[in-house]
Amino acid sequence: MLLSDLVEEIKKGNSNFISANIVENLNIDDAASLEEAVNHQISFLEENNTLKEKLDQTKASVIITTNNNEIVSALKKLNISNIIVKNPRIAFAEVLNFLYKTINFNPGIHPSAVIDKTVKIGADCHIGPNVYIGENTVIGNNNNILNGSSILGNVRIGNNNIIHPNCVIYENTTLKNNCVINSNSVIGSEGFGFIPKNGKWVKMPQKGGVKIMSFVEIGTNCCIDRPAVGLTFIDEGTKLDNLVQIGHGVKIGKNCIFAAQVGIAGGAKIGDGVILAGQVGVNNRVKVGNNVIASSKCGIHCDIDDGKVISGFPAMANKSWLRSSSIFKKLPELAKKLRQLDKQ
């Protein structure tokens, strides 16, 4: 794609285009990081990125950046084409969609698919090889259900969803519109419910369901359990990384983002806009307020108010955790001094 054409596409996007300086109207064939980019490739640079100190080392033909005088002046001196926008990361994401076309799956049902006669499938759906769809399931329009996935009975799927290979969607699951379920994820599996009796465990039947709203994305190898009664619920716009476990009866708000290996125990309630970094654990029935941010490996054992930034195990205010962690490495020395004082 010619650089001038790429600029026109960026103007139509959501990055708030400001200006462009085209040194040479090259074909842009590829995108790369600033450090690895070569001729005919595009990259991006944000204002607070330390890579701006190494601009003179890049071989990129064009760089998307912010309206920062230092960066813009450096690019002009280096004779590198630049596109100035308010949000370079969004512009770069849009460029990736322009340069790399997604695979389009032709509508139709593969002959190896096994589909119950009671299933209703909308228009323009792609049902791949070895897919299984169980009884009384309703699937809307323009869905891509890829090879090896299993959709059990009484499932409701809306429009424009992508279900990648080898996913399993259990009974009584609802998936709204424009969702992405990545490979090997399981939605609606039985919740971990057992009752102790006479030194043994009696199984609590898990007869509830899972409801996932629109624009939710679920990574690979995630597990979302159904409860004994009622619903496990994920509201619109929420994104899950790989290897995330959502326990039975959990309620998750809008536009949350959970990094890899987050685990949420049964009955927990997560507000809107919550960010959970890698390996965060949330105890059962805990309530996490809106716009909470929890740093990596944080253990949330009690309710958290709106807007808090927390860290540590057990979770505490991030600033308190930083002060405490700076003391940890001094504990042996402090313990030694206390023993000396005791001897006095």
Residue-averaged pLDDT, rounded?
Answer: 94
State the CATH superfamily name of the largest domain. Hexapeptide repeat proteins
| CATH overall fold name of the largest domain | UDP N-Acetylglucosamine Acyltransferase, domain 1
CATH class of the largest domain: Mainly Beta
Distance linking N and C termini: 79 Å
Strand content: 25-35%
Number of helices: 5
Main beta sheet strand tally, sense and closure: 12 strands, mixed
Backbone structural class:
alpha/beta
Query: What spatial form do the alpha-carbon principal axes imply?
Result: flat
User: How many domain units?
Assistant: 2
Can you characterise this structure?
This protein is α/β, with parallel strands linked by helices. The chain folds into two domains: 3-99, MurE/MurF, N-terminal domain (Udp-n-acetylmuramoylalanyl-d-glutamate--2,6- Diaminopimelate Ligase, Chain: A, domain 1), CATH 3.40.1390.10; 108-322, Hexapeptide repeat proteins (UDP N-Acetylglucosamine Acyltransferase, domain 1). Helix content is 16%, strand content 30%. It contains five helices and 38 strands. A twelve-stranded mixed β-sheet has the order 6-9-12-15-18-23-26-29-32-35-37-38, covered by helices on one side. Strands 7-10-13-16-19-24-27-30-33-36 form a ten-stranded parallel β-sheet, with no helix packed on it. It has a nine-stranded parallel β-sheet with strand order 8-11-14-17-22-25-28-31-34, with no helix packed on it.
